[in-house]
Amino acid sequence: MLFRRTAALILLATATLWPASAAQAHDVLKSSNPKENAKVESLTEVVLEFSNSVRFPKVVVNGPDDKNYASGEAERDGHKVIQAVSGPLPAGKYVIAYRIVSSDGHPRTGEVPFTVTAPDTPTPEPSETAAAASPPASASPEPTPVAASTPPPVDAAPQSSTEDAESGGGGGFLILAIGVGVVAVAAVVMATRRKPGKGD
Predict the structure, then answer these.
(1) Residue 68 in contact with residue 60, Cβ under 8 Å?
(2) Whether 86 contacts 94, CB under 8 Å
């Protein structure tokens, strides 16, 4: 009788704990990077962390253009699955879809949606310093009128020195010739006076 009661208690405990053991056997996703419904500007990889070490992970990253941006094969690091992403990613909605085999041998699948936002591009404002440093364009200066100069009157050309020499030279030559003649006559007179006469 005691044996039957013990066996019944064991069966009852096994039946009660069986669903919990089965649920714990399935590995579940604990966290992800990016998180579910997160908004990011850029992404180089996605990280999925499970409750236990999983096998045969397969991860795809579907973009807004239905393109898979996953690069290469997923890698395992303990309880984590790391999947590289080829970028840059265009803005839009994405879904991380994964498939793993849990430690109890059952396959598990799931999805993690997130959004890539376009980076804010600030509009450059005009620099006040540059505007102040640039002088305003001025009109071309008008040319200053130049008064026509009247040429000075031309004086009569002075007589050349050659003409003066010729005119002055002619008068001097005449005076010199007269002087020589006077001296010659005086010399003749004096010579005549000094000669003794024949009657002397």
Answers:
(1) yes
(2) no
